[in-house]
Amino acid sequence: MTREAAVDGRIGSIRIGPDDPRYLAVVDKRFNKRYRASPDYFRLVSSTDQVVSAVEEGVRDGRRLAVTSGGHCLEGFVSDAEVRVIIDVSPMKRVYYDVVRGAVAVEAGATVGETFRALFETWGVVIPLGEYPEIGMGGHVVGGAFGFLCRQLGLAADYLYAVEVVTVDGGGRASSVVATRETADPHRDLWWAHTGGGGGNFGVVTRYWFRSPGASGDDPVRLLPRAPESITTFKAEWNGCSTVSPPPPQQKESVARVLEAYAKAMKTGDYSSVHFASDVTFLGPLTNGPITGEVQVKAFLLKVSAGVKDVRVKRQVIDCEFACVIADLETKEGNVVPFCEFFRIVDGRIAEIRPYFDPRPLIR
Ligand SMILES: Cc1cc2nc3c(=O)[nH]c(=O)nc-3n(C[C@H](O)[C@H](O)[C@H](O)COP(=O)(O)OP(=O)(O)OC[C@H]3O[C@@H](n4cnc5c(N)ncnc54)[C@H](O)[C@@H]3O)c2cc1C
After folding, report:
1. Most buried residue, 9, 122, 231, 261, by most Cβ within 10 Å?
2. 73 C-alpha vs ligand 1 centroid, how far in Å?
């Protein structure tokens, strides 16, 4: 089926129902596989008008709506079994200078990576967005959005000049509204709500406009912070070296050795040849009820961190059924590899250890 053939003539967007071969692909784009949606259909939209129509249609039919951009919700806000229609704005990806508003416009379906790239390649500017390139701007900016540059530049929301939102009134009529940070704007509260209020709360965001506070003029190069001339990107695999040049072969080999040692340790339970670096992030079940599995995960961490003087375990809540450990795994040669595993906890014990990118759902 071609893209054109799939377009719903009435409202112009693409409707994907459970019988459509693309349905599963859209369901599965979510980052957190713990939650799963089974909507009656998805609406793939590529314009604000299409969002307006899609919202009106869902409201008219009495179906619960949710909106998704990049699918990186950590909660089940989109992938909720109660949700009947999911509006997916990911086809809306334009990044351009809007002469009328004197600000750089970014559509809600652009990802963080696409936005960074477009801003840099077109004007050499930057917004302090988050650290993971696949996050969608739609759900990201409304949460405030922090990242590598936030100590220097603040939050992405600090640069939000305006937001276009599709809302629906009590009579079921949907429309789009642009809310700006201008003090005289009657919709200023709606703009403010999108500088940290979180996604999916006030309407469907279709577009953001960015301009530094106090910036003026019509040259986009001067309206946002200049991008750093160079940045040190590092992947822990290569011990903090820049990824610009490929790692020397001996490092590759030692990384492979570490992974092999780790895989072996997983099988045998003997972790004596594997060490963690000092900075360990522990995402696990901590509040809201019994702390199932924490003891086992801690014991595991202690075991694999033998010989490390200072293991700092940071904690965050995910839920009470699985934990996720993120850490830097350090070789005896001093090379570091990232480590991330899910632990499925059943009756207070580790029932399963599963690699991070394993696509199978955690809970069956
Ligand atoms: C691996 C990973 C790394 C992350 N790193 C960072 C980081 O460095 N900095 C940071 O600040 N955050 C980070 N986050 C959090 C991320 O910014 C939020 O989870 C964000 O809400 C994801 O947006 P999304 O569009 O990708 O997700 P989605 O799952 O599509 O949506 C998330 C939420 O936003 C709503 N939403 C999505 N699109 C729209 C829209 N167009 N209009 C209105 N509501 C919408 C959804 O309904 C849902 O409630 C990270 C998340 C993950 C999973």
Report:
1. 261
2. 5
